[in-house]
């Protein structure tokens, strides 16, 4: 799946805009994400932390849950950004949630505030993901 460069730039901008919305009093590490649906709508997300640290919701999952809660289940492209040395790397929980809702070949662009970019896919992020089809 290939999308226009302009669309990618728009997603990067939307993910970057989310850095200001992040609720990160504990880590002080804002993360932004922007998820493009197959219908062309964009759902953005930020990380939302909690005094009970394990309840933190990452930017990627915020974007996916916003979209799914609006009835969207077909996704085309995800951008994630943060203030990292290299392209940001999604946590294991987000990789599993991506595997639930996005096709294995869906592109994921990992970037940062320095403009480093790494293009990957959902299945590269989580090879051998556990899926509902695995349950007999
Ligand atoms: O891809 C990532 C990596 C980290 N975080 C968040 C979780 C937590 O709020 C902070 C530090 O781990 O960054 C994300 O939202 N997405
Ligand atoms: Zn995560």
From TrEMBL:
Keywords attached to this Swiss-Prot or TrEMBL record, sorted alphabetically, are: Hydrolase, Metal-binding, Zinc
Q: What is its EC number?
A: 3.5.4.5
BP GO annotations: nucleobase-containing small molecule metabolic process; pyrimidine-containing compound metabolic process
Reaction catalyzed = cytidine + H2O + H(+) = uridine + NH4(+); 2'-deoxycytidine + H2O + H(+) = 2'-deoxyuridine + NH4(+)
Q: Where does Zn(2+) bind?
A: 58, 91, 94
Name a GO molecular-function annotation: identical protein binding
User: Which positions fall inside the CMP/dCMP-type deaminase domain?
Assistant: 6-133
| The keyword DNA damage appears for this protein | no
The enzyme class is hydrolase
Question: Sorted alphabetically, which NCBIfam families does this protein's record hold?
Answer: cyt_deam_tetra (TIGR01354), PRK05578.1 (NF004064)
Tell me its family.
Answer: Belongs to the cytidine and deoxycytidylate deaminase family.
From the Swiss-Prot or TrEMBL record, give the protein name.
Answer: Cytidine deaminase
Organism of origin: Carnobacterium viridans
